[in-house]
Amino acid sequence: MQVGIDMGTLSGGQPARLDIEELLATRLLVQGNSGSGKSHLLRRLLEQSAQWVQQVIIDPEGDFVTLSEKYGHLVVDGERSEAELVGIASRIRRHRVSCVLSLDELEVEQQMRAAAVFLNAMFDADHEFWYPVLVVVDEAQMFAPAVGGDVSEDARKMSLGAMTNLMCRGRKRGLAGVIATQRLAKLAKNVAAEASNFLMGRTFLDIDMARAADLLGMDRRQAEMFRDLQRGNFVGLGPALSRRPLPISIGEVETQARSSSPKLMPMPEVVEDVEDLIFTPDLEELTQVGPRRTRPTPRPTTDILAELSRATPLTDAPLAKPANAPEAPAMAEEERAERLANVLGEILADPQSGYRTDAALYQDFLVRARMARVAGPPMPLGEFRRRVAISRSGVDAETAATEAWATALSLSGNVSEDLQGVFLMLANAAIKGEACPSDARIARAYGTHSARRARRLLGYFEEQGLLIVHADFSGKRIVGIPDLQAETAPGAADAPEPAEGAEAAE
C-alpha cells in the first residue's frame, strides 16, 4: 500500500509528498542547527503518518510526549531498570503500540544506556512480530557519537551498537530509522551513511555544510546555500522524496512541545529598594530545609526482593508467640543445605523456569523455602544466581570435582551474571568432550527462544577472548576454550532442543 503524506510545500507551491512505504525501506536523516526547525519537521512527520504506521520516538528532551494527548502515544519513562525496558519494548513490538521513550530526567550516559537497551530489545523481537515501525531518534549525535566524549567507553559502544543495528540491519526486521542531528560532523559516519533520504536545514559550520552537500550530491560551492535557509525550510532528496534536491517548507503542526524557544518580553519596572530585594531572604527561603531533592532512580526489583528477604521487625523486642505454639526445632547445617537444594531443584525442574527472570525465580524460591520450614537467613541473591547458573550448565558431581571445572567457574566471573549459565554449559561440554550445544540449547540457558540471540552470545564470548568458535569439514560447530585446553565435539547448530527428560536420560 502506497501512502504519501503531506510534509509542506515546494518552492512552486505544490505539496511536498513523502512516500511512507518507501521511507520504511530507505530510512531518513534530518540535519540542522539548533533553531532550524528539526523538531518541528519530526513532529509534522509523526502527526501525518500516525494513522498509517506504528511509531517509536527516542526523546532525550521530553518534547514529543504531547503526542499522547491527541494521537494516543504511550509515554514510557526512561527511569526504569534494564529488565523493565526490555519487557516493555518487547510488548510494544508484539502489540504494535506507538510510544515515546522519554529520557529527559536522566543524565547523558543513562540516556544512552536506556535507549540502547530499548532499541536492542526491539531489534531482537521474534520474527513473527517484525511489523513495520518508524523509529525516530532525536539528537542522534548523542546516541551515535563519531568520537568518545565525557561518557564511559562502555556506554558509548553500547549506544553506538544499537544505533548501528537500527540503521544498518533494522530494515529486514521492520525497523525504519529516522534520525535527526544538529551536527553531521559529530554523528558516526556508518550510521549516517545508511540513510537514503535526506532533509538538510540551516547550518553554519563549513564542515557540516560540506558533508550535507556531499550527501545531497551537490557541488561544494553550492553548500553556502545552507546558511541562508529560513527556519522550517529544508532541502530534500531521496527515493521517498525526490530524485533531485528540492527546497521544502514544512507545514503546520497540531501539537506543541512542552518547551519552546525563548521569546523577548518587557523588562519589569525598576524597583527602588533593589538591594534590599535581592540581599534579604524571603520567609519562605528561611523555612526551606536543604536543597531541593531530585527524583531518585528506581531500584531494581531483584534488590528490593533481597532486602525484603532480610527484613527484621520494627522493634528490638521479640515477637510474641501464641502460648501453645511449638518451639522451632534447631536445624543442622547439613539438613538446611539439603532442604535448600531440594527447593532449588523443584524450581529448576519446571520446563518454563529457563524463560523466567531471576527476580521471579528468587521470589518463588523464598516463598518455597519458608513453606519448607528452612530455618536461618535466606540464601543471598548473588549465591542464588550462581547456583542457578551452575545448575543450568548440567554439570555432574564428578566433573564438578575436577580442577578444570574450578577454572571454568573462575573464568565465568569475567561475564555478567545473566551470561554465566551459558558459559558454564559450554565449559561443561568442552571438559567432557560432548557435542557442542545447539542454538536452541544455548538460547534456553540464556532464558530466550531466539536462536539468533544465542549466536550473538557466542560472538560476544569470542570477542572477550573466552572461547574460539570454528567448524569441522562437515560444517558442524566446535567451541574451544583456550584456558581449559579443551573443546567440544562437533555439533549441529540448528539441532532441535531435546524433549523434556531426554537430556537426563542420555
UniProtKB/TrEMBL annotation:
The GO molecular function terms of this record are: ATP binding
Highest taxon in the source lineage: Bacteria
Segment Disordered: which positions? 311-336, 487-506
The protein's matches in SUPFAM superfamilies, at most eight in alphabetical order, are given as:
P-loop containing nucleoside triphosphate hydrolases (SSF52540)
**UniProt keywords, alphabetically:** ATP-binding, Nucleotide-binding
Give me the stretches of Low complexity compositional bias.
317-331
The AAA+ ATPase domain is annotated at 24-310
The identity of this protein, by name, is ATP-binding protein
